[in-house]
Amino acid sequence: MTVCGLVTNSQEPVPLKSISVDVVVRGFVADVVSELRYQNEEKSPVEVVFVFPLDDEAAVYAFEGLIGGTRIEAQIREKKQAEQEYEDALSEGRQAFLLEREANTSDIFTCSLGNLPPNGEATLKLSYVQALAPEPDGAIRFVLPAVLNPRYAPQGSEGGNVTKSIPRLPKGQLPYTLSLSATLESPYGINRVESKCTLEPLRYTAEDRTIAQVSLAEGHQFDQDVELLIYYKDIQKPSALLEAGMPGTAPGSLMGDPALLLTLYPSVPAPKPGQKATGEFLFLLDRSGSMGTCTDPDPSSPRRIQSAKETLIFLLKSLPLGCYFNIYGFGSTHDSFYPQSVEYTQETMSKSLQRVKELQADLGGTEILRPLKAIYSQPCREGYPRQLFVFTDGEVSNTDEVIAEVGRHSSSHRCFSFGIGEGASTALIKGIARAAGGSAEFITGKERMQAKALQSLKKALQPAVTGISLSWDLPPGLKAELVGSGPQVIFQGQRCLIYAQIRGQHQSSGSTEGTVVLQYLFQDQTFKETLGFSLTSQETDRLPVHRLAAQTLLKELEGTGEKEEEKQRLALETSLSSGVVCSQTAYVGVNKELGTALQGPLAHRNIPLACFAECAPPPRSRFSPRLNACHSPMDFSPMDSSPPPPPMPPYLDIAKYPVRGGMALGYAQCAPLRSRLSPRPKVCRSPMDSSSPPPMQNYLNIAKYPDQASGARAIKCERAVPKKIMCCFLRQSPPPPPPAIHNSPSAKSSEPTPKEKESPLLSLVSLQNANGSWPLDSGLANILGLSEAEISSKSPAQVTPDAWATVLALLWLHSRATGQRDEWELLEYKALIWLQATAGSQLAECVKAGNEMLGSSVSPEALGV
């Protein structure tokens, strides 16, 4: 059957039977062990290939197998050597397994198990460690990724795209199961655990609630990311963890000396954005086809493009007067609202707001490198620090190339990135933020993008912290050395991780305490953070702190994109000594105890992943075919310079009707996903029938094939990348070419998405002026549920209509949208500055009158009165 554009035989056995995951989360560190159980039910030996995602910052450090009762520990090797050992073992009929990271990205891994004999069983165990970051609400977020969306391969990009070969099955039909159990430890206590997945009740195993256990409910399908939001008590307390080195390893080496992990929360003063804040703010929005899908499988969740548009409105309204800005869109091509950044005024804001509302996911593929180069080709404005905001679902295959381009311009800007929807590439989103000193956020499920985007804007409005340095006070004979270059960026309220190694010999009779001081400059003021720690190191077999330190160093050595020979050599040495996989290494294990080599042909089996069922496509015209299809994120690659129009839902499992009487029928049989179970497959009108407009612009690579039975010609239409979707239609003449669609600001889809209903909050925000005020008009009156005349009649004397309207708008925000304060906090700040200058002496009276009219009880102090 054809599933999500890839052909897979539903009757073909799947050797992977179950995945079992054990997680230990200690503070901000997750140590994960995944067991993959295989069973070969075929009559010949098989090679099983499983492609799966991991977080960009996960440090894979161990791989082993249990095959036929024999435990085999895989060895880390240089990648080419590991691949050769694996191929040699297969050719000799020996059982072997291989784990490697994809060449062009750090968040996709491939696990191969070769020569699994008939009726044979095997268990592969993968271990990795990962540092966890707190969310804006204080939750520690652990994600076991499951969704691996197809990666778009830009034109001219080098290397293959492994996601194109992954078979897909509809949600709920994966033949293997997932179980997950997690042990949580925090010295300050654990409040609760939340998840969009069904969990068993949280069990505390310590009376003081410092240790707890939680697990997935039985029967969970591994067709969505597993997310745990862990809420600790006193999360922002600094901490230090000293871990003993690996026994038997030489002192002075990365793994031989104790490793120290410091967690600090520098008290950078809160930024105070206002009318005098300056900057150049550039917003780069993904408008590829996959942005037309939902952020969550629930059809009621918003489309990615719609969430991004609403977020842009909030960001535009929150910018300070006098800054400069521009908005770019990209897909197969790119465009911008203005040739160069323009000054933020009432006129430019209003004009941009209208154009934002008209944006669609109509630019085809995901060519992010070209718009980045276009942005960097524009000269920076002196005195206006450049801040780049990138919104994308991150489905590209040339990740390393994009990160390298951002890194080359890191001295001229900061980059704040947002990954939208499950399956967004953590390598891309985190990589570009790390390369340009910004921060990365991910929006999944029903999370609101606006809150996280406005948090990032607060960081962007904050002047950069400079002069970051560390000083150590250790007992005689000991010294501390940073692993990597240390902290480069510090933001207000954000956690700062520091890795170091303690070198030298500690005298047992001396002090067992050390101190570190973090010092930095902010707006010409010097700030210091001091943390004391014990020199008594903890011993552990897994060495999570050492692995994380090695991963941090590897990110620096490989993150520039420049293939410097010395850095490549250091990266290879670090990977081999620490066991942490990098782009140059892989794990390989061979069963050398096999007595007799396996005979017979080796069958190749790819493990299927879930076809991430997105929300249904937007309503189309009455002439469009109606299909039940698994809507998967898909981007398109143009055959010419014209960008393709909005994506159509993929046509799955399509077969042509027989030709009768020498005439070709103008119909195609379009079966839903479970066509083999449906006694009456649905029939849809072919888009190539001349009786209806041909909505075939999305089918880009059209070739004609003769029908030998009748002389009629079948039309084969396939999307070029990243997946092939075939529709075979019978016709005696080719259809007319689709009309050209030009990439201009005014160009619209022939079938635009119906306007989404705005929330009251968005409607109110949309009315705000660039200077922070609100006009007294019918739009505001409708939101308040009053008439303009009634509002005007209650206005205090000598107060201008705009000032009265602005007070009412702020009271509405405080009383009706308290839970979304993060989204309108900057808007309020602009409004209060304007009010103080306009009606400062009468604000208290306005607040009292406004409360009486709206029935609210907001205190004047809440508005700074």
Per CATH, the architecture of the domain at 280-461 is 3-Layer(aba) Sandwich
Q: Overall pLDDT, averaged? A: 80
What is the CATH superfamily of the domain at 280-461? von Willebrand factor, type A domain
- Spatially, the strands of the biggest sheet line up as 7-6-11-4-3-14-17-16
Intertermini distance: 67 Å
Number of strands: 41
Work out the helix count.
15
User: Rg to the nearest angstrom?
Assistant: 29 Å
Q: What's the helical proportion of residues?
A: 10-25%
Description:
It is globular, with a radius of gyration of 29 Å. The model is unreliable at 1-10 and 616-754 (pLDDT under 50). The chain is an alpha+beta fold. Among the domains are: 259-271 and 464-536, Immunoglobulin-like (Sandwich); 280-461, von Willebrand factor, type A domain (Rossmann fold); 616-740, no CATH class; 760-863, no CATH class. The strands form ten sheets. Strands 7-6-11-4-3-14-17-16 form an eight-stranded mixed β-sheet. Strands 21, 22, 23, 24, 25, 26 and 27 form a seven-stranded mixed β-sheet that branches. The chain has a six-stranded mixed β-sheet with strand order 8-33-9-10-5-34. It has 15 helices and 41 strands. A hairpin with a 6-residue loop joins strand 16 and strand 17.
